[in-house]
Amino acid sequence: MYIREENGERADPAMQPIAALQGASGEFIQELLRRFVGRWITSCRLVGAIEQQAGPREAIRKTTRLKSVSDGKTFPLFQDLGTGATGCCLDSAGPVQAGAAVSRHIAGGCDLVVLNKFGKLEAESRSGLLSAFVSAVEHNAPVLTAVSPKYEAAWSSFASPFFTFLPPEDAAIDQWWRTIHAVR
Q1: How confident is the model at residue 184 (pLDDT cuts 50, 70, 90)?
Q2: What pTM did the predictor assign?
């Protein structure tokens, strides 16, 4: 599935097995991913992890979690460093656990892997959901994700030449998925 170059020419971007959303805020892109999952969860085998905020916006760091698309299990994204803390409160353990769970679901079979983003942890090859991205590639499973321009070089190094960027629009995402799903 991932062999996409013929005669030295890159395949049609709509046919790339990995799609990354760019061009909107992280919150908006996560909403697009949640809507996509809501539209397609009953008609195909989706696995993955997407962001879910369970509380008020003021408490975003305490309430944002990764939620498994397959079974609803949640994993923390942030750790509470206490009042006045200025360090990074990203909790790498939660995304690592989510990545391992998604990898197990991928191994069980799926049509598409939806991952909240390729971000700091993945770009630094430290962990995060990196195991799920690698598992998807190893199992030839298409991937829908998001990539901030800040991590575009690391993303390109990881996913080239098998990805395309999509605009943050429901119609564009659905069209890409219909094309990929029809080929599979």
Answers
A1: confident
A2: 0.85
